Fold:
Amino acid sequence: MSTLTALARAEAVAAGRAQPIATVRHLHVHPDPLVLVPVVMAGEPNAPLAALAGRDRAAPRLLVVAQPRNRDLRFAFAAELAEIVVGYAESHIGPSEAVAVDRGRDVRHRYLDAPQVWVPNPGGVDFLRLFGRSTRFRRTDGDHPVPPAVPLLGRWLTFLATQAEVPGSALLVAATQALALHWATGQSSAEDAQLGALLGWIDPGPLTGPEAARRAEQLPPAGPATDPDFDNRVLAPLLSAGADPADALRDQLLPTWDLMWRAVDLLRALPPGARVAGRWDADRDAFSGYVAHLRDTGTPQPRRDSAVAAAARLHRLENVQARYAAQRAFDDPLVMAEHRLTGEAFEGVVTHAKADRVDDTGKRPVLRPRLIVRTAEPVRASAGTALTCPDRPSQKATVISVTPAGDETDVLLELSGGMGRKLVAEPGSVPAVGDTVLYTTLTEAYRPGGAFPEPDRTPWTHGGPPAPPAQPTPAEAAEEWA
Amino acid sequence: MTDAVLDRLRGPGPARRHNARTIAALTANPGCTRRAVLDAAGVDKQGLAERAGHPAPFGQSGFALSRGNAFEAQLKADSGRLLRELLAGALGHDVPESYADLGADDDATLTARHAATAELLTGAGAALVDHPLLSLDVAGRTVFLEPDLVAARVGGRFHVVEIKSFAIVDGQADSAKVSAAAVQAAVYVLALRRLLGDDLVSHDVVLVCPENFAFRPTAVVLDVRKQLGTLTRQLRRLAGVSALAADLPPGLSFDLALPGAELAAAVARLTARYAPECLSACELAYLCRHEATGTTAALGRPVREALGGVDTIGEVLELASGARAPGPGQEEAAALLRAAARLRAAAVGL
Structure:
């Protein structure tokens, strides 16, 4: 928790409503998202009980497993969910655009749109991951055949849940996390995990934030776990009488359904950050890649990543995480303010500038302007550190020296790049004396991937080469499901 | 003497007994006098919260309960045949076929069952002992532990076996549930060691859970040394309940038959230490949360620390705006808060 966000929480307590911790929206909000509110049967390993799903807030579709321990009903639920989720995902397979890769030496295609699924909370993401795991190895032939859509649903759910681990990805969104990225409430993060209480603080209507949050605590939980009291007093009698629990379950899920669309609306109303579209491009790439995989071999994702795949994935996630943090700060002065507070960024005024300085000590002369920036903010950079100015992202500023100047600090910087090709800087590409500038150690520059062996050269220390991806075996397809 | 005081605090209702979960919750917040005294007196905290006007939703789904029971029954059927196989696989030792169940949820037989447990465990008796009744020193008093475990004698040492109904899928399980199970198992290890000595009870406990999506059990070994260390430390930190109870006014009572307002006033006499973690661990959490309104502690430890450990929201905002001069030792926190307020104002005002 940064002091800035903590202060916003304190301000929220005093104001009686949530306070913004972002000035722009940091995720893509789809014009036509799919909202999904799943609940599971208590005590069962990932047995679906019901779900509300759909793209039209006025017409949610209720899926119910009337007897959660009945295998056939469970696969019927999966088939129905597949119709919705797979149908929605495939509806985005359409026109594509060509994207240059490998510095223009190659080209790949990506679809102009991609799906976006919303669930209430990280528990919803976990449910989809496990439901994907329990359905993707099923087969449509053999001793335990399932409807053809079921294993396809499993692959799509696994894809979405895996993407949800990528920082900044918006293919599968947990509403509580998306909201908490933009607002600080006057309650703890444990209480923020309840969608209703969180929205109560953000959008309390005529009530105060705490009043609205307390009232929301009386609503049914947003899943995937049910309210034990509902289980004991309503659901259990219905199930043991063999009655249809659909109406009771709809009543439990509808409040969350409404909250979900309010969350989508609230976020959509924020202006998007400049780099949000770029991250959605990456999501469209991932979606297009997965569609290609399904058309190619379509093998299900393995139970566990192989050693090389896991190492490469971890490395990639770390890079994406660093880039995402930098991008949010570059897009949003309020996020950048957190880094200024810790000294990872500082704002100051240019007191000296030599824009035409040329370094001719090397083989050929190069343009290397120098600036002195005076700042009252903490500076954690030291000589040799490379800094970036968010207004000039392609220009590198290397710290030459950091000198105290009374209560303030003078930072001497040497600039390279982003000034045109000549030995004279393009107008405006070098800050002038009197300009207020901001420099930070954050960078969104591309980082090279790690050097990992090819999967078929995995050393024995890491289990040796993994088995090639394959269609599920009959044993996998017949896995028991209590 | 103390028992009489504690019985008087509770009133005529039956005493609630400790179990591994309540001890884990107690040691998670050792500074909370309210919980320490009420637990020691065996007060029905859920009832108390309700009567005092802040009921908290604490309950377990009957579905989960019956599923858990069915899972356990399957393991223990036929003198624990399935459980023995699993333990043999997990611990790499044969488990002889001998099974003793001491189960009987009855207060009147506590002392007798505790003696029987001691006899069974110290003697050469059974390899699997179900529902042993153990005791532990908590806050200066000896408490009996609600029996809900199997002690397995394997290779000359006892292992605590925790049977849980959450699933282990492809070797992974919900980490919050696993760590809660580990802490509870550690409580039982401590209690067993109290009876048998440290050497005879292993720090390796066995967690038995359903595997993947089936009802079939699997067993994994957990090393709970870290949890044991934490528990021992926290138990030592728990102030003696006798001293706490002695400081209370003589007429104080938590008899649920009293009027709600009187009960609320009585609860207020016990100092609580609220943290958001209490919401999932203590029946009185809503009441304490209500009391803690306006404190930084109510926002959670990370927030409180990020605010420099300042106690109240009012003080934080005054320090941040410069309206209040920092007290001794607060200078650094105040400077950070002022800088944060300045940066926030500049960015939000854009």
